[in-house]
Every structure is written in C-alpha cells, then in structure tokens.
C-alpha cells in the first residue's frame, strides 16, 4: 500500500469517530476515539515533548492509519471499546482476561480434515463457523462431533504419516477409527466430515433422527451398552443445540451494508455487528458499475460476498431496495439453517446506522481515489507508456530474464513475470545452467531461453507465452533472444533494457533502435522495477545454492573431486577458464591435490572446453 501519512493527515474530517493505527505488518497498534478526528490524529505526528516514551515508540511504528466516523462522541466511545475488545491492540490498556470470540475451524484443505478451536479467522483455505459467544459451547460441540463421527484430532500430516506411529488412545476407546494407520480412504473420511459440516450449518434434526434410529436398533438387538453410548451422544446433541439457541437469542447478529459511488468507482462498506456489538468493518470495490443502478450493485455484492463468507448473520441491513430480495433471503436462509432477513430501514436508529455506513463508504472513496489513480499509473498506466514508446499494443504479460554466477562456478538464470504492470510471483521460474562451464552470460541466456520456450508443450508451467520479452541489456542480449525464438519458430517481441555507465536503465533497444525514455515517467520506473526484480530473484537463487553444500558445478562431474578438493580448487582459481589453462603441476602446487588427480582434472576440463 502506498500511504503518504502527511497527505492523508490533510484529508482527515472534523468529525467524531474512531482511529486505528497499523504497523508495516498490518497489525493494529492502537485504537482511539476523538471528538475531532482531524485534530486528534494529527497530534500524534507533531513533535510533542512529554507525551511519554511508550507513545513515541508507537508513533515510530505507524505505517498507516484508518478511521470510522460516527455521529457523536458517545458512539465513538462504544465503537472504540468494541474494537479494543476485538483486536487487543498492543498499545491500548486492556483487561487481562479479555478474550476474542471463538470459532470452529474445519481444515477442509487437508486430506483428512480436523475440527479445531480457534480465536481468530485467518485467510486460509479452512472453513470457519462462528463467531460464538461461549468458548465452552464451542469446545463441547467439537468434542461431540469428534465422538459422533469418530474424527481424528491429532496433528499428524496424512497421508504422509501413515503408520509412522501407533494409533493413539482415542482409537483404543473407539472414539476414532485411526485414519493415521491408513484404515480408511479419503472418500470414506470425507463422508464423515460432510456430516459434521451439515451439523455446523444448522441441520441438527437429521443428526438427532439418525442417532435415535441407531439407538433403537441397538436396543432391539439387545446391544444395551452401545444403545446407552448413543443415548449419551443424543443428549449431548440436544444440549449443544439448546445452548446455540440461547446464544442466538442474546443480542443481534447483523451486517450493515451501504455504498458510495462517483462516475467511475463504487465502494461498498460492511459493518459487522455480533451479539449486538459493532466489532469491525470492511470495504470492497465493485467494478463495472458506471451504468448500473444502486440496487443492482448492492444485489450483486450480496450474492457474491455471502457465497464465500463462512458466517451469515440473521439480518442484513442495506441502504436501498433490491429486486431479488425474497429469492436471496431464501438462499441465505438455506445456507444459515434458519431464517435470514434483508431489511432496508426507513427511520429510527437502524436507518442512522445504515447512513453511518454510507458516510464511511464516501470517506473511503474520497480518501482512496488519489491512491487508486496513483496505483493505476504505476501499473497499467506505465504499461501503456511502454506500449507507446515501442509502438505495440496489448502488452499484458511481460517476462524478464537475468543471469547470476560466481566466476563461472555456478551459473543460474531467473525468469520474472509481470502482468498488467504488477509482479506475478507464482509464475517466476529459476534455472540451473547445465551446458555452460564458465562465466559466459550470452551462452547461459541462450540455454535459459531455449529451455523456457522449448518446454512449453511438455510443461504447463511454461504454457503461457509473454506478449513481450525484456532482456537485461542491449543489442547482444536481444539478438540472443531473437535467435532462440527464430530457431523455435516463435514470433514474440523482444526489447532490451539498456543501461548507462552507472548500471541504470537509460533506454529501450527495440527493432535495432535505442529508444530514449523519460527517466521521470512511470514507464521508466516500471522497467527499473522489473530489471531489479529479475536481478534480485537470480541473486537470491544463486545465494541459496552457495549456502551449505548445495553448490553443484562442473567440478562435481570430475572423478576424484569431492567437496574438500572442490573447495580447494575454487579457492585457488577464480574461474573455470583459469583452472582449464593451468597445468597439472600448477594445480597440485596450489591445492595440494595429488598429481594424478590433477592430471584427471586438467584432461577433463580440456575435453569439455573443446566440446
């Protein structure tokens, strides 16, 4: 995030509200309230003597801040308290026994999922149920479902750890069927997890009915011990569902949704109210809204947002009517397991709450508009500038390459990918050079490009071709790339990022012409970032190979040369070429390696050099 604190301080409104200070890792440092947000927040960044070392330490860590406006100082006080309870910021005065709301976490991304107790909802691939107000009820529910469906609660990684250890006590007391021993397939175990998920989604009746049928059957078969065990489980199910009903009746769970828009952008603000308390908020940008009605935008937001959220509240309060209200209510009710209502308040405190959400959405839209434009200029805007310089269009995907080595002993190559002006790190690739012994960057680059583009049909990782290739250099590097592409029958534009004497990009080499570029433009800054990123990625890979005993060079292929002798050779000679030029006697005198082994080294390198 590009957050200019001095500029953002100027935009602060003269309204009551709550401010939230964040550090570089997005951790909340402090939550405070103010009668006048503009004056209060600015006071932190003035040089004030005597405010205390703790506040000074906090201010030093502030990377950015956000704020929520309220209608009164009293509302700010209530909201401040709720946010402090929810986030427990480091620099706020806190009750030691204060706790966040608990969740039930289902690790559906695992082959054999588990049910876990969690105090936070992370952005991972697990499913979360909650938040609940009673930690005891959550633990009882997890314990019940583990017994009911005989699920594992160990930390073993399955199927990797099949049979590594003996089954635990739960297996011996028939509370788990030991999937850790490979006793059941993933499909069989998934059926049990689906049953637990069904229960957590509110379908208690099917569980109660199934248990009653099993208990009756066990009783008829005079298997009274099993019948009694099922009876106890049945009582636990009824107990848990009753506690959930009691929990649901205390306070209200609702989401308050409002929006703000201008000619090109739309922001939707969501306030999260749990157990009658506002515990947080989020804002979301909607695309392609220029010719849409407000009701249509909110309707699409509700459908898309609640299709992926783990918790659906009892009420959604929205700022305007939507056309498919009844249909969406039925859909959300089916997911929640009981009735969900979509309301559009027209008067009273609920209407003011929605207006407050809309007011905050407007502030976010105004505050972020400049930042959004700046980010677009850095990314897509910069790409358009590059397109104009070289006379091409549609440069969505760019690939850049770099070579790194230490005197030719360990050559590596890097490939970095940018899409729409932003790095796409999942597509980065690194290469161990296999055919080049010495520090020959041109030959190394030829191997990298040949491997990258010749493997496209066999390797899905290389299946997407770039719209342009950016080489770290001028005519020589560009001609290497064009030669490889010509041999493979590919037609991809290639441009070189030409550097000056200080190793800074000064222009683009394209179609045998060096094109001068504005060094103050966003396009120039993007090219510099791409060039630096390719270099960084290659250097990091090379550094990782140099660490420990991971370096593998041409010396490893020579019979009689192990790690110790390789180290001696690398210490005595700065490059493979220097070693190749040395006589066996010279090698032996500098390294102490026996003359017969030095003869083998010399012969091997000379043969390799001729080839």
Explain what this protein looks like in three dimensions.
By secondary structure, the chain is α+β, with helices and mostly antiparallel strands. The chain folds into 5 domains: 5-87, 3-Layer(aba) Sandwich (GIY-YIG endonuclease), CATH 3.40.1440; 103-248, no CATH class; 254-366, UvrC, RNAse H endonuclease domain (Nucleotidyltransferase, domain 5, 2-Layer Sandwich); 397-546, 2-Layer Sandwich (Nucleotidyltransferase, domain 5); 554-610, Orthogonal Bundle (DNA polymerase, domain 1). It has helices spanning 5-10, 37-43, 53-61, 73-87, 135-149, 169-172, 186-200, 204-220, 224-248, 294-306, 325-336, 348-390, 441-454, 475-487, 522-546, 563-572, 576-581, 584-591, 595-610, and strands at residues 17-22, 28-34, 64-69, 103-106, 115-118, 127-129, 254-261, 266-274, 277-286, 315-318, 341-343, 397-404, 412-419, 422-423, 429-432, 468-471, 494-499, 505-510, 513-516. The strands form 4 sheets. Strands 12, 13, 14, 15, 16, 17, 18 and 19 form an 8-stranded mixed sheet that branches. Helix 11 links the parallel strand 10 (315-318) and strand 11. 31% of the residues are buried.
For the termini, the CA-CA separation is 52 Å
The CATH level-2 architecture of the largest domain is identified as: 2-Layer Sandwich
Largest sheet: 8 strands, mixed
Helix content: 40-55%
- Give the total of beta strands: 19
CATH uppermost class of the largest domain: Alpha Beta
User: How many distinct folded domains?
Assistant: 5
Backbone shape: globular
Q: Which band does the percent of strand residues land in?
A: 15-25%
The rounded Rg comes to 32 Å
- Class based on secondary structure composition and strand pairing: alpha+beta
- Which superfamily, in CATH terms, is the homologous superfamily of the largest domain? UvrC, RNAse H endonuclease domain
Average pLDDT confidence is 82
> Counting H and I runs of at least 4 residues, what is the number of helices?
19
**Residue runs with pLDDT of under 50 for 5 or more positions:** 95-99, 242-250
């Amino acid at each position: 995030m590009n957050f200019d604190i001095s500029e953002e301080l100027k935009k602060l409104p003269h309204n009551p509200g709550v401010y939230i200070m964040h550090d570089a890792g997005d951790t909340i440092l402090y939550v405070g309230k103010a009668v006048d947000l503009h004056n209060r927040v600015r006071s932190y960044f003035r040089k004030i003597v005597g405010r205390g070392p703790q506040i000074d330490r906090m201010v030093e860590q502030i990377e950015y801040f956000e704020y929520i406006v309220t209608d009164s100082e009293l509302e700010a006080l209530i909201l401040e308290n709720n946010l402090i309870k929810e986030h427990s910021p480091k620099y706020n005065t806190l009750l030691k026994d204060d706790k966040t709301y608990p969740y039930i976490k289902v690790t559906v991304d695992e082959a054999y999922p588990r049910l876990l107790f969690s105090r936070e909802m992370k952005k991972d691939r697990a499913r979360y149920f909650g938040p609940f107000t009673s930690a005891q009820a959550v633990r009882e529910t997890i314990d019940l479902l583990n017994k009911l469906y005989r699920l594992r609660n160990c930390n073993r990684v399955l199927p990797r750890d099949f049979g590594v250890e003996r089954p635990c006590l739960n297996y011996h007391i028939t509370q788990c069927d030991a999937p850790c021993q490979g006793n059941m397939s993933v499909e069989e175990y998934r059926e049990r997890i689906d049953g637990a998920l069904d229960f957590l989604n509110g379908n208690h009746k099917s569980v109660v009915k199934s248990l009653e049928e099993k208990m009756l059957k066990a009783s008829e078969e005079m298997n009274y011990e099993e019948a009694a065990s099922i009876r106890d489980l049945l009582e636990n199910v009824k107990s848990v569902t009753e506690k959930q009903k009691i929990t649901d009746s205390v306070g209200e769970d609702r989401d308050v949704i409002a929006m703000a828009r201008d000619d090109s952008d739309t922001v939707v603000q969501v306030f999260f109210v749990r157990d009658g308390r506002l515990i947080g908020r989020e804002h979301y940008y909607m695309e392609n809204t220029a010719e849409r009605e407000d009701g249509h935008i909110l309707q699409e937001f509700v459908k898309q947002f609640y299709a992926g959220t783990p918790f659906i509240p009892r009420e959604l309060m929205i700022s305007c009517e939507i056309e498919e209200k009844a249909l969406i209510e039925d859909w959300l009710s089916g997911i929640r397991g009981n009735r969900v209502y979509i309301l559009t308040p027209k008067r009273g405190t609920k209407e003011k709450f929605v207006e407050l959400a809309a007011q905050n959405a407007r502030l976010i839209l105004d505050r972020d508009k400049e930042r959004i434009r700046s980010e677009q200029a850095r990314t897509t805007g910069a790409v358009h500038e590059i397109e104009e310089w070289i006379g091409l269009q549609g440069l969505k995907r760019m690939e850049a390459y770099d070579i790194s080595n230490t005197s030719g002993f360990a050559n590596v190559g890097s490939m970095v990918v940018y899409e729409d002006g932003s790095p796409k790190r999942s597509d980065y690739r690194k290469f161990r050079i296999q055919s080049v012994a010495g520090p020959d960057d041109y030959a190394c680059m030829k191997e990298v490009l040949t491997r990258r583009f010749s493997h496209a049909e066999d390797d899905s990782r290389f299946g997407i071709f770039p719209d342009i290739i950016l080489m770290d250099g001028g005519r020589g590097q560009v001609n290497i790339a064009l030669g490889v592409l010509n041999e493979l029958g590919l037609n991809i534009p290639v441009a070189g990022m030409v550097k000056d004497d200080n190793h800074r990009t000064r222009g683009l080499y394209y179609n045998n012409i060096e094109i001068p570029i504005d060094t103050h433009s966003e396009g120039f800054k993007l090219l510099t970032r791409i060039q630096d990123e390719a270099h960084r990625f290659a250097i990091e890979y090379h550094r990782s190979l140099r660490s420990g005993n991971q370096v593998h060079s041409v010396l490893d292929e020579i019979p009689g040369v192990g790690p110790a002798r390789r180290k001696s050779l690398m210490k005595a000679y700065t490059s493979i070429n220097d070693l190749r030029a040395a006589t066996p006697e010279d090698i032996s005198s500098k390294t102490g390696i026996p003359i017969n082994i030095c003869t083998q080294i010399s012969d091997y390198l000379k043969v390799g050099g001729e080839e």
